Model the fold of this input.
Amino acid sequence: MMLEKLIKACRKGDIKAQKQLYSDYKDVLYILCLKYSRNKQEAEDVLHDSFMVIFNSIKKYKGNGSFEGWMKRITINTAITSFKKNSTFNILINEEITKDVLVDDSIVDAIPLQQILKAVQGLPDRYRFVFNLYELDNYTHKEIAEMLDVSIGTSKSNLHRAKILLRKKLEEWNNNNLNNRSYGN
Amino acid sequence: MGTKRDIGSSIKEKLNALEAAPDEMVWSRLQDSLDNKKKRRIVPLWFWFVGVGILFIGGFIGVSMNSVFENVNSNQITIDRKSSTSNGASTTPLDTQTDNFLNSTQPENVDVSLKETALRNSEKVDESNNLNTIVKTNKPLKTKEEMKKAVKLSDSHISGSNNLNIGVVSQQVDNINSSGINKNVVFDSIKNAAHLVNQEEDLVNASASVLREKDSVQKIKKDVLDKNLKKQEQNPWSVSVSTIFNSYDNFRSGSLLDPSLDSNQVSREFKINYGASLNYDLNQQWTIRTGANYVSYKQGTQNVDPSFTDVTRLNYVDYSIDAATLDMATASSSELEIIQEFTYLELPLQLRYSIYGNKIDIGAIGGLTYRLRLDDAIFVRGDSSTIEIGDSSTFYDSGVSAHVAFASRIKINKRFYFNIEPTYYFHIRPYETNRINSPSEFRVTTSLEYKF
Done:
């Protein structure tokens, strides 16, 4: 079914069309949810909530811009709403750190994808969201600050801390893995 | 050694290759949620007919509607008692919130939200504690009891494992104190203690997340209430169809037909009348209403002896038939009954004030009614026949009444409400010029209201 027809049918509440839309976009949105959540179960909850919002507000989609982009924005906002608990993000840190946190390419290459995802998911909420929004979904610090109700400085600082934590986690995993291999030899 | 890059771009590149699919259960849950939403939205046409049926049944129950209040109240008490006893003896604030939440007016939303809360809590605690004693519930929680249990379980495990770790840390500190100058032992102990402190920190985080979930439950509850209020504000219009039971008694002595019949017995028929109204909510307390009511009255002057009373010359009657015809019709009867029927179209304008609003809304009504006489007929009933003789010569074509009412409204669902309004009318301009009838009238109006 053409996307336009699918959207039209979804607006009328056609369950077949809703299932088709879900099947078409579930994977791409689920991957997004996985990055923003702490585990698989939370990601599935966010995915469920996001599709509920999508089906409820599909009438509001005017056709401006990509439909997938619109759904991704809803998913990200749903994830933020799910994890935004009062002061979680709003820890005031005055540092404004913009320096890159460098890591050896060979380390990242050597680590399995699932392990990298686990490292991202293991970040505290305030770090994980800023890291995902800035690095993976190309939001600016200004946009992030508005979305998470934090200052731009806090957003920058949380990104820096997220990167340091990630580097530490990946290096630790790499070292452990090297040690295990050498014991194995 | 490879080239060094910013970790953000490295991870982004790597995660671009990520492939994953959600569990099939997600669609099932989503379908359930969508079905529930649809079910809530559809108001079948037959509901109107059922509503009208309720009005008629309500009519026959009449004044005993008070018992409906009592039934509704006693039902609520039963539900509360049941839920509180099934929870066990001790209730934490979260239990109370959960119970309130489960008993709230939005069962579908509550179920889904609480299910998610319970799942999240149980899993968060499991992950952060690293203890194998915690029950992990990956399967969806079906019943309210399961949900409550999961929420409780997460609470109890957090407090239990906190105590355990504090004990272990204390033990480690004791070990350090007793080990003297052995550096390795001290170093290991500090390392272990640090590890345990980290665990403790995780537990504190887990506790904090449970507290956040509690806040979330409250927030959702508040959102549901706000949503309801908002909806009420957004849809100020409603319409209602009503049944009016009037009891109009002549408390004063005197006949509406002729002074010679003042002492005769008068029978009054209990009438069921109908109306419709359009309502507009000015705000949460005040509602303005207008509409139209079709109201009729019927009374019979009994035991009229034709040998004493000349029915062809009654004082307050405009005859439409000649005396000879009437004489012929009543000649064979030893006793007559003179029946009067009056019909009015009423146009009320009312203000309703809600004193207490919930499932049962209690309020007060005040208003004015303008009435137009539609029909007026007088009949004479003899032993064998009934004949129309004319109409009343003393009745006004129109009149004005003021009224006050006790207003009660029972919420059936978010669209339909059932109103019961015992009303006292004072006829400022009475029905007839001689002012024989009492200016007071008592009515009970029941109506089914539909909110847009």
Summary: The domain at 237-451 of chain B is CATH 2.40.160.20 (Porin). Confidence is low (pLDDT under 50) at residues 65-142, 153-170 of chain B.
